[in-house]
Amino acid sequence: MNKINHDQLLSLEHPFIKIPVEKFRSSLKTEQKHIEKEIAHLTNTVSEISKKSQHGIMDANQVQTALEAIVSRLSTLKRRLTETRAEESLYSQRTKVRLQHLQEFTAIPTLDSDEFGRWSRVRLNRILIDYMLREGFRETASYLAKSENMEDLVDIELFVQSAKIEQALNKYSCSECLQWCNENKSSLKKIKSTLEFSLREQEFIELARERRSQDAIAYAKKHLTPWQETHMKELSQVMALLAFPPDTKCQPYKRLYDKSRWRNIISQFRSNNFALQFFTPEPLLNVTLQAGLSALKTPMCYLPEHRNINCPVCDPHTLGLLATDLPLSHHFNSSIVCRISGQIMNEDNLPMALPNGYVYSYNALAQMASLNGGKITCPRTGAVFDIAQVKKVFIS
Ligand SMILES: [Zn+2]
C-alpha cells in the first residue's frame, strides 16, 4: 500500500531536467557561433594582409595595425567565451544536482519512510518556488530558495528578464517585448507565435488612440504590411480604427481600443516565454493538486446539500474551482460519510437513522446528545429528538 510508484511521479519531472540541459545546449550553440564567426574573419583578414603586403599595398606599420585589430577582436572573443563558459558550468552543475535529487527519490521504497518525508519537503518547496515565480513573488521565492539551500533546484534567474518585460508591458510599452521577440525570432517561429503581430498591432492602436494618423499610417506601412498574408482580417479591422475616435461605442473598434488588450499581451508573452524555456504552461502546483483532487472528486462534490466538510473538492471557492474540469474519480467501493462529523460510517461508527429518516454517524450523534442532555437536533430539518429514538441502519 505504501509502496512508491516512482514512474508516476517522475513523469511530472521532465521540465525539471530539461530546463538546465536546454540552457546548456543553447549556451554551447552561442559559443560555437562566436568561434566560427571569428575564425572566418581571422582567416579572411590574414590572407588579405599577406596578399596586400606581398604586393606592397600595405607597409609594415599598416600590417602591425591590422594585426593589432585582430588581437583586440580575439580578446573580445576570449571574454565572451569566459562568460558563456561560466553559464555552461552553472547549467551543467544544475543538471547534475537535479539528477542526484531524482536519483535519491528512486532509492526510496516506501511513502512512510523518513527519507521520503525529507525528499518530498524539498519537492514541495520547489513546487512552491515555481508557483511564486510565476505569480511574480520573486523576492519571496529567492528567500525560500536561499534559506533551504536549494538554488540549483529552481530557476529564479530565468524570471528576471521576463519580469522586466512584463513590467514594461504593464506601463504600456512594447519595445522591450519586441526586442525579446527579435532575440528569439527563430524559436518563436517554431512554436508559431503571433506575439510580435499582437505587439505591432497594439503600437498601431496606441497611435490611433492619440489620433496621430500620419504616424499610424507610416507605422502600418513599415511594421504591419509584412503580416498581410496571414492576418488580413485583423489588419483591415485595425486600420479602420483611424476612422473611429477612442471613445467609440461601435464594435469591434471599441474592443480594439480597450486597454484590457494589454493584459492579453502579457499572458501571450508569458505562455510563449514558458514554452521557449521549457516550463510547463501550468504551474506544477496546479498539476500535482489536480492529480490528487481527481482521485477525490465525486458527483456529490458540487451539490451544496451534499458537501462533505472534510473533502477538499467540496470547497467551491478554492480547490473545488481547480477541480472543475477534472474527471470524476472511479470508486470501486462506496464509503458513507457522516454529514455532521465528516467521518466514515462503518462497523466502528455505525450509521444511525433519526425518526425523520435522516442518517448520521453514531459518534457524532452520541457527542451531540452528551452535550445537550440526551437531545439531538437534526442539522437538515432542525427537528429535535431523544437519543433513545435513533435506530441502527444496516446496509446490505
Ligand atoms: Zn467532495
TrEMBL record:
Zn finger (RING-Gid-type) location: 311-381
Residue intervals passing through the bilayer: none
Top-rank lineage group of the source organism: Eukaryota
Keywords, ordered alphabetically: Cytoplasm, Metal-binding, Zinc, Zinc-finger
Positions of the RING-Gid-type domain: 311-381
Presence of keyword rRNA-binding: no
SUPFAM superfamilies per UniProt: RING/U-box
Domain CTLH: 159-215
GO CC aspect terms: cytoplasm; GID complex; nucleus
Major location category of this protein: cytoplasm
Pfam families: CTLH
One GO BP: proteasome-mediated ubiquitin-dependent protein catabolic process
Compartment(s) of residence: Cytoplasm
Coiled coil location: none
One example GO MF annotation: ubiquitin protein ligase activity
InterPro entries the UniProt entry points to: CRA_dom, CTLH/CRA, CTLH_C, Fyv10_fam, LisH, ZF_RING_GID
PANTHER family in UniProt: E3 UBIQUITIN-PROTEIN TRANSFERASE MAEA, MACROPHAGE ERYTHROBLAST ATTACHER-RELATED
Family: Belongs to the FYV10 family.
Protein known as: GID complex subunit containing RING finger motif
Lineage: Eukaryota, Fungi, Fungi incertae sedis, Mucoromycota, Mortierellomycotina
